[in-house]
Design goal:
The chain has 433 residues and is α/β, with parallel strands linked by helices. It is built from 14 helices and 16 strands. α2 runs antiparallel to α5, α3 runs antiparallel to α4 and α7 packs across α8.
Length: 433
């Protein structure tokens, strides 16, 4: 059971989470940092990397004051209030120690890990005050990445198995999301959204009956409720559909979360901490036929078009183009080709200028920034259902720059200007749902 930052964002919400995890069976609970904490820790690290120690101390002080208030609200007895204060004092003294020394990327990772260490420590103390048999399992003892920065799943399985065997018979097991050690044994993390990944990796490693991702929305909706009225949760998705939606913008689920669960055929359920009785969304290996399930949008996309009359019948051209993106470790989202050109989209523009300069060796290059990919996901097997017609009929009034269809039987992607995103989402909702 993974609970995100909003779900543990206050003392009262932690109390609500405690009620949810006590469902009569042993549960392993993965917690994020309290909402806002990681952003503050990033800000502290930014000040320290710029040698602005006063700025760092000011942010540390504000964050500490917040935790003092939460400790006061979370525990009822003086014994546990004292234990809670000791806990946060220890962590904040540690964070403050970094204002007195050299600050590098290594120290930044250590500072960023403190949010999850604090939230899990506070939650474990609260459960103990309530008389619940809980135990804290430090993620840094079993979560590890390899030389490529990918989770070392063999190491994770062996070590969490060993730790659980040594801690048998407890009611609730608690660990940190997001944080891990790298191949060198240094503190590291699974990057933003990594708590979902932790939950999926842990669930796969222990052969869990189900992986539950608890957030502040009742499942994955069929469109973005921030921009479209009347959306509804999708009750069931296949692993492939969920992966497409997560990758192309559905914020409720981290894209990497699906693979470990799919590989081990463990269902993933998306649930709402604020409405725990809601059914949410069940993600499993079951394939649902003859339907469009949902729409998602991915912003801040850049389109790159390469025009070259030399492409005509020239083998090896695409290889040369793709090698340029590979050189700069920049992945491509969409691709469309013709006899005289190729268009691609990227969401990482870090090396864009260098990529464009290299592409100019092979033809004229145009760049469009501020674009949005809208993905329509479901059972979209070509030749079978006529869904392409429905999709483009719904979008008849929206200028479309690029289309990707047939690369997956679960996804049709279209590229529109950022300013047309909301119009397109609403048109698709009206036309498809």
């Amino acid at each position: 059971m993974k609970f995100g930052g909003t779900s543990v964002g206050s003392a009262q919400r932690m109390k609500n989470v405690a009620k949810i995890v006590l469902d009569g069976q042993p549960n392993l609970v993965v917690l994020s940092a309290m909402s806002g904490t990681t952003n503050s820790l990033v800000e502290i690290s930014d000040y320290l990397s710029r040698k602005n120690r006063d700025g760092a101390r000011e942010v540390i002080g504000k964050l500490y004051d917040k935790y003092v208030r939460e400790v006061e609200d979370l525990y009822s007895g003086e014994e546990f209030k004292t234990a809670g204060m000791d806990l946060i004092r220890e962590h904040f003294d540690y964070i403050r120690s970094f204002t007195n020394d050299v600050f590098t990327a290594y120290e930044e990772k250590v500072v960023l890990s403190q949010g999850e260490l604090i939230s899990t420590g506070m939650f474990n103390l609260y459960l103990k005050e309530q008389g619940i048999d809980s135990v804290l399992l430090p993620a840094l003892d079993f979560m590890k990445t390899d030389e490529n920065g990918e989770p070392d799943q063999v190491f994770i399985k062996e070590n969490i198995g060993r730790i659980l065997e040594a801690n048998q018979g407890h009611q609730i097991y608690i660990t940190q999301g997001f944080i891990c050690r790298n191949a060198f044994g240094d503190v590291d993390n699974l990057q933003r959204g990594g708590s979902d990944y932790t939950a999926s990796l842990v669930g796969a490693a222990i052969g869990a009956e189900e992986i539950q991702i608890w957030t502040d929305i009742d499942g994955m909706h069929n469109n973005d409720p921030r921009f479209v009225e009347g959306t509804s949760p999708v009750s069931d998705l296949s692993f492939d559909e969920a992966a497409e939606l997560a990758y192309f913008g559905a914020k409720i689920l981290h894209p990497t979360c699906v693979l470990p669960a799919k590989s081990n055929n463990i269902p993933v359920r998306l649930l709402n901490t604020m409405e725990p009785e809601a059914r949410g969304t069940m993600i499993s290996s079951v394939q649902y036929r003859n339907r469009i399930a949902a729409v998602a949008a991915k912003d801040n996309i850049t389109a790159i078009r390469i025009h070259s009359s030399r492409m005509l019948l020239a083998y090896g051209f695409l290889r040369k183009v793709f090698e340029i993106f590979e050189t700069y470790k920049t992945s491509i989202d969409m691709i469309s080709t013709s006899e005289v050109g190729v268009s691609v989209t990227v969401d990482n523009t870090r090396h864009l200028d260098a990529i464009v300069d290299d592409l100019k060796k092979y033809g004229m290059v145009e760049v469009d920034r501020g674009m949005t990919i809208i993905s329509i996901v479901g059972d979209l097997e070509p030749y079978s259902h006529g869904y392409a017609g429905k999709i483009f009929q719904a979008l008849s009034s929206v200028p479309v720059s690029m289309i990707s269809y047939g690369g997956s039987s679960h996804n049709v992607s279209i590229l529109v200007r950022g300013e047309d995103k909301v119009t397109a989402l609403r048109a698709l909702s009206a036309g498809l749902f």
